[in-house]
């Protein structure tokens, strides 16, 4: 038995960085500039002895005529329908933004199985943002640093029951 995990969240929070870390191949582009990766990308994820499908959502980085909220809704609903669980990522150094709150609302309304991750969690600059993440009403956040590989044991613990 395996499962699928979709990584969702607003642009630039570190979704593709985590995808690349889990998949181990550079299947998704990572860049400082929003707009590099597009739509959905799938790879075989590996974390300890767990094997699963990872879906990186990137469609929001594209500039289109459609509103950001409309695209967020569509893309997130697609990810929720495709995946067994969504990892909803925020940037802990920035804290909770209005866009993050819209995502949280979509996920709650869709009754998605959500793992909340506060990324860029390395260092004390992330402390306040990690605490703010509780206000999203999606449970206890996992403090992650996708770039530095921190918080992976906690992510493992959250994913293990799904295997
Ligand atoms: P995405 O748009 O959500 O896919 O975000 P990306 O993975 O492309 O990352 C956006 C930027 O955040 C890049 O410059 C990454 O190097 C950086 N980043 C990703 N994870 C971390 C992290 O854990 N800590 C810090 N400080 N930067 C990160
Ligand atoms: Mg990306």
Give the radius of gyration: 14 Å
Structural class, from secondary structure content?
A: alpha/beta
Count of beta strands: 6
Net shape: globular
Distinct small molecules: guanosine-5'-diphosphate, magnesium ion
Description:
This protein is α/β, with parallel strands linked by helices and 163 residues long. It is 31% helix and 22% strand. The protein is built from five helices and six strands, in the order βαββαβαβαβα. It has helices at 15-23, 68-82, 98-109, 127-132, 152-159; strands at residues 4-8, 40-47, 50-57, 85-91, 114-119, 142-143. A six-stranded mixed β-sheet has the order 2-3-1-4-5-6, with helices on both faces. A hairpin with a 2-residue loop joins strand 2 and strand 3 (50-57). Helix 2 (68-82) crosses helix 3 (98-109). It is globular and about 40 Å long. The mean pLDDT is 89. The structure holds guanosine-5'-diphosphate and magnesium ion. The site of magnesium ion has 4 residues, from helix 1. This is GTPase Der. GTPase that plays an essential role in the late steps of ribosome biogenesis. Associates with the 50S ribosomal subunit. It comes from Salipiger mangrovisoli. Residues 3-163 form the EngA-type G domain.
């Amino acid at each position: 038995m395996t499962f699928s995990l979709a990584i969702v969240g607003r642009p630039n929070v570190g979704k593709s960085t985590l995808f690349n870390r889990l998949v181990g191949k550079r299947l998704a582009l990572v860049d400082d500039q929003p707009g590099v990766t597009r739509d959905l990308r799938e790879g075989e994820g590996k974390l300890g002895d767990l094997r699963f499908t990872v879906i990186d959502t990137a469609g929001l980085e594209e500039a289109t005529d459609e509103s950001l909220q409309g695209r967020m809704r569509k893309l997130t609903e697609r990810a929720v329908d495709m995946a067994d669980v969504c990892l909803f990522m925020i940037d802990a150094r920035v804290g909770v933004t209005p866009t993050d709150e819209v995502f949280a609302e979509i996920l709650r309304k869709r009754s998605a199985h959500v793992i909340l991750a506060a990324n860029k969690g390395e260092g004390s600059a992330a402390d306040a943002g990690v605490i703010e993440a509780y206000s999203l009403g999606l449970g206890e956040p996992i403090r992650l640093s996708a770039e530095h590989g921190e918080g992976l044991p906690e992510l493992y613990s959250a994913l293990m029951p799904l295997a």
